[in-house]
Amino acid sequence: MRQLLLLCGLLLAVAAWAAPDPDPDAASPLGDGTAAVTAHDVHPGAEKPALFTFVRVQHGAASWNANAKGTTRFLAFLKPYLPCTGDAATVALKDLGTLPHPPLLYLYADRDFALTKAETATLHAYLAHDGMLFVDGPPDPAAVAAVRRALLPVAGSLTALPADHPVTTFLFALHAPGVGENARLAAHGDIDNRNFGAARDGRLIVFYSPGNLLRLCMLVAADAQPYFTAQYQMVANVTAYAALHGHAPATKQPGADTTVTLAVTEYLDALNAKPLPLTVEKPE
């Protein structure tokens, strides 16, 4: 009997040694994938890191999937710095409670954004379990009002984030926060040229940018101008902040220049013109 037990133990050990390592590029449809992602892993060349999946929420407004190609382009930019899948997963808000708990949910919100009582309760419960919302939308005062109204019972009042908030320098050490297309309207005073958020127990649980950050990623390559590089980096900072639950990596990447010049505001204006300027890469 003892010999039989020893033989069984030997066979189990050989099987464990011979089993292939998990495929780092494999992920479940949502896949939390962040348990093994530590500050040490947030750099190129991390050995067999877990994968982070960027999850977009399907909600009632028709624009919920706006600028989806921008997500793919952003994730290609992010992958050398944070191990992640190459495309976003999508989850219907009504199904969120039945799926693995992702550390970050992305919501696109325009002036039609609203939540039902059930959706409000679902998101409130999600945030109570260490989740984080990344809300993105146009630089439209009506959209800002709609987001504030919808998220009030979810996370409390949204307040303007100070320029030196840790999320601004979390992965890329930006000298000023990326505010996307808000820069285009700042000179006219049409909208507050800042990002907004809500915190709980010292950790950011909602990040809101009325700057169409993923729209810029869809329309403009990351290396088009330093200003646009900074916008990619701002999205990366928010994503990494959620993936690492606010525990910043020991080594940070240099941030691009976020200075908004007249040339940049004109460039941003040109994004809405047709045909697009030759220096702007058209979406696929």
Overview of this protein structure:
- The chain is α/β, with parallel strands linked by helices and 284 residues long.
- The protein has one domain (27-270): Domain of unknown function DUF4159 (Rossmann fold, 3-Layer(aba) Sandwich).
- The protein is 33% helix and 12% strand.
- It is built from 8 helices and 9 strands.
- It has helices spanning 2-18, 68-78, 117-128, 141-155, 182-186, 213-219, 226-243, 262-270, and strands spanning 55-58, 89-92, 105-108, 133-136, 159-160, 172-173, 196-200, 203-209, 253-254.
- The protein has a 7-stranded mixed beta sheet with strand order 2-1-3-4-8-7-5, covered by helices on one side.
- The longest helix is centred in the C-terminal third of the chain and has 18 residues, at 226-243.
- The radius of gyration is 21 Å and the shape is globular.
Key features?
alpha/beta; Rossmann fold; globular; 8 helices; seven-stranded mixed β-sheet; 284 residues
Shape: globular
Structural class: alpha/beta
Any idea of the CATH class?
Alpha Beta
Helix content: 25-40%
- In total, the number of strands is 9
Order of helices and strands: HEHEEHEHEEHEEHHEH
Query: Based on the structure given, which CATH architecture is correct?
Result: 3-Layer(aba) Sandwich
